[in-house]
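At this stage, I wrote out one protein, both as residues and as discrete backbone shape codes, and that material follows here.
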Amino acid sequence: MSFPWLAQASHNKAALSEGLKIVRKVIARDAKKIGLSTTELYKLSIREPPPPTYSRSIAAREEHDEDTVPEVKYGKAGRRRAAPPVPPHPRHPVRSISFLKHSILPIIEGEQYVRHIRETRLVTRAADKSRPAPRGSKQQPASAARGSPVETMVWLWRSATPPKRVEKPPVPRPPIVYDCSHMKASKRKAHRTRDELAAKRAELQERRDKLKAEARHKVEVERRTIRRTEGRARHQAEERAALSVKEERRKQWEQKNPLLAKAFAAEREAEEQKLKKLRATLK
């Protein structure tokens, strides 16, 4: 039995993991000195090519979608629900600005690799011709009608370095101390001797465990050395047996092919003579 939401869930997981990599790369590269708006970050992320594995998974999913029949959904009133709009870049991990804003950026912001800050920017606003000018107002010049840069506060994303995690050492538990002040002197002495005996017993047990561990380690080292020597001896015996087999095969081949054997022997002797001459000249 196949569930229709499993393919979509796996696709969203792959898109999220690859989209996080791409957006982290863009933020580390372009958002260090100058902040980026969400739209600018989306445009830069779209320029980054998706990995080939993601492209293959998208192609397989599209083939699966072509084979399956789309499900028709109806609302409470019995009207047919419209299908959700297709994202502008369905073959890219950062498929839409909504996916970037609601799925990717909150994770990176939670990791403290990016900050959402407000800064002033010069924004050029085009003149709105649809609205008529109010009565009694003076006509603005042509330069102002076209739109002039205006300083406005905008939200921008800027890269940040997450704080270093300092691992605190574990706090040792305080020793348990029994209050014997309300007891008699004899009972106090008995408690004191009992505590001393318990401490001595614990110390002896610790020493015993340490000696056992040392003896175990010594035995293990001896076993390892024995295994190593046995393995080395076995390997040498196998090598000797292989060499003897090789020598026997060579002798059999020489008996079957005496002419070739003589030719190879002559070539070997000539090479040895050349090597001797070279060594003599080098000396």
The first helix runs from residue 4 to 30. Residues 38 and 156 are 7 Å apart (CA to CA).
